[in-house]
């Protein structure tokens, strides 16, 4: 018996309706109202960081507009022939173009020639141009003419991660929406939903690490979760994400912060040498140090924050913040500032860990200079 084809998580759980879209309510509301009132524009521009749902919402808008049985709530029916074709990526009237590899004027001229033809089955032929900022100046000028005088049977949805590179002439002829980075809480909820659906167990600290590494990108979180499940099909242990993604152990990060706050320079140097010897990326160590120091500062400012952390972190993780929350705020603030400066330095060159080391030791040096 032939096995079914494996589908990566971010594709398997890609939203099929507007209700399933996470974290972009401000965009979804406007698009649903436009569909309900019959005011769908001929051209849209979706901008935002990677993995925030730009292409997903572009496909949803294309499907919902052309749906043969769209409901009063503006949701696609997902059962008509049009919906099935659009969902499967087999619709002849949905054309997706990667501007990174089709960026020249000849590519846009071909698009202009194709636009003239009416749709095969749908009400509108939809063109999704991803990474549109990659188009050449000449290609943008050619596209501008089409956006100025679009045929009634065509819709354009442009997507970009670098809005500042899109010419003002293009911006003025599109409805523009900025997609927001997702909060860690929203990503955490989504990860838990997938884990429940996949019947896969993962501890709270591991979920926290994935949401932290995702950095506002839901697609990255889903991709990393898929990697973890493929690497540990029978279940992931507590240290699985650290091993798979090359992270320092949270315990080591906490020990570093503890040594710095207790003014123990020899201990800081020794701990850092052990972490670097494991091949840990200093940039990732820096990110974790900043994240944990910032969380510690919020606990020092507001003790009730510890109760909130108990709902989403392990006992050991929360214990670190509880045991250090009574430290002087100015000490934690000073350390966080130093760590941020080190992180923002770029950590380049042959001694990438050196800015982190100087940041941890810097608080002690400041004490002696006073």
Automatic annotation (TrEMBL):
What reaction(s) does this enzyme catalyze?
Answer: DNA(n) + a 2'-deoxyribonucleoside 5'-triphosphate = DNA(n+1) + diphosphate
The EC number of this protein is 2.7.7.7
Pfam families tied to this protein: DNA_pol3_delta2 (PF13177), DNA_pol3_gamma3 (PF12169), DNAX_ATPase_lid (PF22608)
| One GO CC term on file | DNA polymerase III complex
Say yes or no: keyword ATP-binding present. yes
Sample GO molecular function, one term = DNA binding
Give me any GO biological process, just one: DNA-templated DNA replication
Q: Which UniProt keywords apply?
A: ATP-binding, DNA replication, DNA-directed DNA polymerase, Metal-binding, Nucleotide-binding, Nucleotidyltransferase, Transferase, Zinc
> What range(s) does the AAA+ ATPase domain occupy?
40-183
Q: Which PANTHER family match?
A: PROTEIN STICHEL-LIKE 2, REPLICATION FACTOR C / DNA POLYMERASE III GAMMA-TAU SUBUNIT
Q: Which family does it belong to?
A: Belongs to the DnaX/STICHEL family.
Role of this protein: DNA polymerase III is a complex, multichain enzyme responsible for most of the replicative synthesis in bacteria. This DNA polymerase also exhibits 3' to 5' exonuclease activity.
SUBUNIT field = DNA polymerase III contains a core (composed of alpha, epsilon and theta chains) that associates with a tau subunit. This core dimerizes to form the POLIII' complex. PolIII' associates with the gamma complex (composed of gamma, delta, delta', psi and chi chains) and with the beta chain to form the complete DNA polymerase III complex.
Task: List the protein's name.
Answer: DNA polymerase III subunit gamma/tau
Provenance organism: Candidatus Ryanbacteria bacterium RIFCSPLOWO2_02_FULL_47_14
Q: What is the lineage of its organism?
A: Bacteria, Candidatus Ryaniibacteriota
Which gene produces this protein?
dnaX
């Amino acid at each position: 018996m032939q096995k079914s084809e494996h589908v990566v998580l971010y594709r398997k759980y890609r939203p099929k309706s507007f209700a399933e879209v996470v974290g972009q309510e401000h965009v979804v509301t406007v698009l649903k109202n436009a569909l309900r009132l019959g005011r769908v524009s001929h051209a849209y521009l979706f901008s935002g960081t990677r993995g925030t749902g730009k292409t997903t919402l572009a496909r949803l808008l294309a499907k919902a507009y052309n749906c043969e049985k769209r409901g009063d709530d503006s949701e696609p029916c997902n059962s008509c022939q049009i919906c099935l074709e659009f969902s499967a990526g087999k619709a002849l009237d949905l054309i997706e173009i990667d501007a990174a590899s089709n960026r020249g004027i000849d590519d846009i001229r071909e698009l202009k020639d194709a636009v003239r033809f009416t749709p095969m089955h749908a009400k509108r032929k939809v063109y999704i141009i991803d990474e549109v900022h990659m188009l050449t100046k000449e290609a943008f000028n050619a596209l501008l003419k089409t956006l100025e005088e679009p045929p009634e049977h065509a819709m354009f949805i442009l997507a970009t991660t670098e809005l500042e590179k899109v010419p003002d002439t293009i911006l003025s002829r599109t409805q523009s929406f900025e997609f927001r980075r997702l909060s860690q809480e929203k990503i955490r909820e989504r990860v838990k939903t997938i884990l429940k659906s996949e019947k896969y167990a993962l501890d709270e600290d591991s979920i926290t690490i994935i949401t932290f590494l995702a950095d506002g990108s839901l697609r990255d979180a889903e991709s990393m979760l898929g990697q973890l499940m493929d690497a540990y099909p029978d279940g992931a242990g507590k240290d699985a994400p650290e091993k798979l993604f090359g992270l320092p152990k949270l315990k080591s990060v906490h020990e570093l912060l503890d040594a710095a706050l207790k003014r123990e320079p020899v201990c800081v140097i020794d701990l850092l040498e052990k972490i670097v010897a494991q091949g840990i990326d200093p940039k990732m160590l820096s990110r974790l140090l900043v994240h944990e120091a910032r969380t510690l500062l919020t606990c020092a400012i507001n003790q009730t924050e510890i109760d909130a952390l108990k709902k989403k972190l392990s006992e050991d993780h929360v214990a670190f913040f509880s045991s250090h929350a009574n430290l002087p705020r100015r000490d934690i603030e000073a350390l966080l500032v130093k760590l941020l400066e080190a992180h923002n330095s770029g950590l380049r060159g042959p001694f990438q860990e050196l800015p982190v080391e100087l940041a941890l030791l810097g608080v002690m040096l400041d004490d002696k200079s006073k």
